[in-house]
Amino acid sequence: MTNDSTQVTRKQVVELATFYIGDALCGMDILKIQEINKLMKMTKVPQAPEYVLGILNLRGQIVTIIDLGKKLGLGETDITLDPRNIIVNSSGSFIGLLVKKIGDVVEADMEKLEASPANMRGIQGDFFTGVYKTQTHLIGILDIDKVLSLDD
After folding, report:
1. How far apart, in Å, are the Cα atoms of 56 and each of 1, 45, 52, 96, 152?
2. Residue 72 to residue 120: CA distance in whole angstroms
3. What is the domain extent for residue 125?
4. The domain that contains 21 carries what CATH number?
5. Which of 11, 57, 98, 117 is most buried, by CB atoms within 10 Å?
């Protein structure tokens, strides 16, 4: 006689850093984030794509700042409302993702991740791996590698 209850199943739990792009609550694996800081003085980059706001020097590292709302087609981030930069390391380069505000860190069981809704079509839908439901919110899980790998 075998006892199935002795078999342990491992959950794939990921800590999600959440943030707002406009009114949309999004999240990404916290391990992909180097740091979060306030918007600092930037230098404009001539002939850069519209979503590239500029570059800045962060302790000797050149960081390209992109407006994540513009990049995803969700509208421009209002820089008068004290937005934040989420600094990520992508392919050896530091990128700052300008977001409206930072949310909480949420532990997410990735086995419960649901597919992105059918009405989330077009390029912005391609940037999300799915939706995670909490008791009070829906969090769009951002595939940051895909966001940063596409050039407009």
Report:
1. 66, 10, 12, 9, 21
2. 12
3. 12-144
4. 2.40.50.180
5. 98
* Stretch 81-105: mean pLDDT: 91
Asked if 81 contacts 98 with a C-beta cutoff of 8 angstroms, the reply is no
**Tens of pLDDT, residues 1-22:** 445 544 445 568 899 999 999 8
Residue 79 is predicted with a pLDDT of 83
CA 147 vs CA 7, 67, 133, 136: distances in Å = 39, 12, 22, 26
Q: Are the C-beta atoms of residues 23 and 138 closer than 8 Å to each other?
A: no
**0.85 surpassed by pTM:** no
Rounded distance between C-alpha atoms, residue 70 and residue 62, angstroms: 21
Which of the 8 DSSP states describes residue 34?
E
Query: Taking a C-beta distance cutoff of 8 angstroms, is the pair 50, 56 a contact?
Result: no
Q: How many domains does the chain have?
A: 1
The mean pLDDT value for 64-89 works out to 90
